[in-house]
Amino acid sequence: MVLIHVKYGDDSQFLYEASLETPVDECTLNITSIYNGRLKISRICSEMEELKKHGTLLPPEIIGLTDEQVVELKLIDKWGETCIPSGGYTFHKDPIGRRNGKQPNENMQNVLTKTIEEAKACVSKKLVQSQIPLTQKKVQEALDILRGAIMIVYPMNLPPHDNIRLEIENNEDLTGTHASLEVIAPNVAQLWFSGRELVREPNKKMKDYLGRNEKTKVVLKLTKTGSGPPAREPPLSEQDRKLLMAEAFKKQEELKKLDQDDDDVYLNSPWADGGSLKRNLHHIDNISWKPTK
Q1: C-alpha span between 34 and 15 (Å, rounded)
Q2: Max CA distance (Å), the chain
Q3: CA 48/CA 72 separation, integer angstroms
Q4: Stretch (H or E) spanning 108
């Protein structure tokens, strides 16, 4: 199995293992699925952070309105009356008017917090440093963990318009959002290796581009079709670049110090003393003379 380091732009994403006999199209679809799954988990975790502070999402027709406008228009959050967190709630008004302010109790907040941390750890970019590959199964496990926490805190489930529920049920609509720019549709996903496009044709396999050695590690960049080839990998890693700069700075400082020294500064050195050899032969080095009284 070849170890693939997947990047999007210059950002490291995750490691993925695949056989060189795998068709390019299949590998591209799997990598894209994991990439989009990580984005989904990130979006859900972000919304859950708000959920534990300000309760469920208000209906679309109420979001952004002031309390006076809601009363004047006679609008009611009927889902807010049925989707109550386990153990009750305390009111914590949402300053931006997106959620109903019914904050879960402390125990339920802890459940959400721990679940968010666990789900993020499952798909963290730090797994790359630990040389741990990511799979679709692990992404699904993280989603299942998030789904389970929601059912614990909200046994009656979230309102059908809540972004978290829409994400978990794969009914989210990202049109017009920044998130829509990050997601890559499977049919427009493209992989690149060393500036060369991995063509998604039925007869093309990973070995046609990566060679025949299964015990290798390569960097593949994920892009959208039509965006052109991504930038090549820099010849030096960030860590190597910092070490090189530190070494250059050290040499520069040494040269500055030499320039400041006088040409005859060496005369003060022991090895430049013409009488040192004679004293050494007569064993009279390092003799201190005391004046007689």
Answers
A1: 10
A2: 113
A3: 30
A4: helix 106-122
Residue 64's closest CA among 78, 49, 75? 75
Cα–Cα distance between 149 and 115 in angstroms, integer?
7
**pTM for this entry:** 0.78
CB 18, CB 57: distance < 8 Å: no
- Rounded to whole angstroms, the Cα distance separating 32 from 41 reads 14
Structure tokens at 258: 């030499």
Query: What residue has token string 């952070």?
Result: 49
Of 213, 168, 219, 170, whose CA–CA distance to 193 is shortest? 219
Backbone φ/ψ region at 56: left (φ over 0), alpha (ψ -120 to 50), beta: beta
The separation between CA 188 and the C-alpha centre of its own chain, rounded to angstroms, equals: 23
At 206-260, the pLDDT tens digits run 999 999 999 999 999 999 988 777 766 666 566 777 888 888 888 888 777 767 6
